[in-house]
Amino acid sequence: MPGVTRWLIRAAMLYLVAALALGIAMQAPAAAQHPIMRAVWPAYLHLLVLGWLTQLIFGVAYWMFPRYSAERPRGSEPMGWAAFGLLNSGLVLRAIVEPWHAVGGRGGPLLVLSAVLQLLAGLAFVANTWPRVRER
Amino acid sequence: MPRLSVLMIRTSLLYLAAGFLAGALMLANRGVPFAEWVYRLRPVHIEFLLLGWTVQLALGMAFWILPRFRSGRERGREELAWGAFALLNAGVLGTAIGGATGAPAIVALLGRSAEGLAALTFALHAWPRVKIFGAG
């Protein structure tokens, strides 16, 4: 299993644990009424579908899809690392800033930065995966 | 990789890029508001990523890797899987664009119906292929 895949899948598992822990916290009677917990729902959802599900798919696809070439079986390795770094920096930034912004109205430009990082992660994955999806 | 899988997986990658773009615009707009219409992209974001990307990728992979038949057509009734491809994409586009443009509710209903029929036709295709490798 290539290094990029190991990092993607391990990070995906951490997000699954973190999202489910957040889900418990959102239901806990003592915490549920706190404004920040009511604002955390979008972050919870994206930790699950982006941090866990999409990142797991990225990792498995990078590993298992048909080889690009004998010399570069997985296409561009730097592009794979870029997708990993951009996705996780964007998502962590979002998970921290989005509830803070919803409650206090601050950190708006950081949300823009998070949006750009996540978009670039998706584009990096698509660009590296596209040429590997082909008929034999 | 068979042609239909190439088409499904590449189409799913396009939905991934477009769905990420819609999500990035909405998140950035929340941080630094620049256009009210951006919030109308929500059904595009959800539909493209949940069905256009995730479900379509799974169907494309399943068509490729599920066990094949020893006799007759190796992937069985392929026309059903092609039908699922057409129905799923018509449904995703109808539901997403209908929701984003405020089209009459019948558009979203037709879109969802096409998605449901896509699931049914793909299940009919794949059902006999869910078997022990080498059997039949």
3D structure, described in words:
The complex is a heterodimer of chains A (136) and B (136). Chain A has helices spanning 3-27, 29-32, 35-38, 41-64, 77-104, 108-129. With 136 residues, chain A is an all-alpha fold. Chain A starts with a helix and ends in a 7-residue tail after the last helix. With 136 residues, chain B is mainly alpha-helical. Helix content of chain B is 73%, strand content 0%. In chain B, helix 2 packs antiparallel against helix 3. The two termini of chain B are 21 Å apart. The mean pLDDT of chain B is 96. The A-B interface holds A 49, 53-54, 57, 66, 94, 97-98, 101, 107-112, 114-116, 118-119, 121-123, 125-126, 129-130, 133-136 and B 1-3, 6, 9-10, 13-14, 16-17, 20-21, 23-25, 27-28, 30-32, 49-50, 54, 57.
Total count of helical runs of at least 4 residues of chain A: 6
- Unreliable residue stretches of chain B: none
Quick one: biggest sheet of chain A? none
* N to C succession of SSEs of chain A: HHHHHH
Shape of chain B: elongated
Instruction: Outline the biggest β-sheet of chain B.
Output: none
The proportion of strand residues of chain A reads under 5%
| Radius of gyration of chain A from CA coordinates | 17 Å
Instruction: Look at the structure and give the mean pLDDT of chain A.
Output: 95
Topology:
The complex is a heterodimer of chains A (136) and B (136).
Chain A: H1 3-27, H2 29-32, H3 35-38, H4 41-64, H5 77-104, H6 108-129
Chain B: H1 3-31, H2 42-65, H3 78-101, H4 105-126
Helix pairs in contact in B: 1-2, 2-3, 3-4
